[in-house]
Amino acid sequence: MTAARILIVEDNEKNLKLLRDLLQFHGYQTLEARTGPEGIARAREAMPDLILLDIELPEMDGVAVLRVLRGDSATSGIPVIAVTASAMRADRERLLGAGFDRFVIKPINIREFPSVVASCLRQNTPGT
Questions:
Q1: Is pTM beyond 0.90 here?
Q2: Among 39, 66, 113, 128, which residue is least crowded by beta carbons within 10 Å?
Q3: Angle, nearest 10°, between helix axes 89-98 and 62-71?
Q4: CB-based contact 19:47 (threshold 8 Å)
């Protein structure tokens, strides 16, 4: 079985490295983008199995990026996990209401994060 490909859209180098290293340690392939427009382009080009999308991005925030991805028939079915420092209940409801599949708060819990990713991937796999 081929390892799932996960696109990380994150502008903070330390957060990007942590996500990349953690995902690769758990056997996933990773792709990277540092801005919203770059993330959209990479998603369309690579068609990843999952996207981890920071909410506070330069040029275009994560909600606007999600709107573009969901509006494109090629990328609309890719699961997207919001990754944000906003931990308020209203933020969670707003992001899930915007169409994110899951919500992960920074700093991420490195013990729980891999199971969130695996669960999101399983839920999007036909026949599981």
A1: yes
A2: 128
A3: 20
A4: no
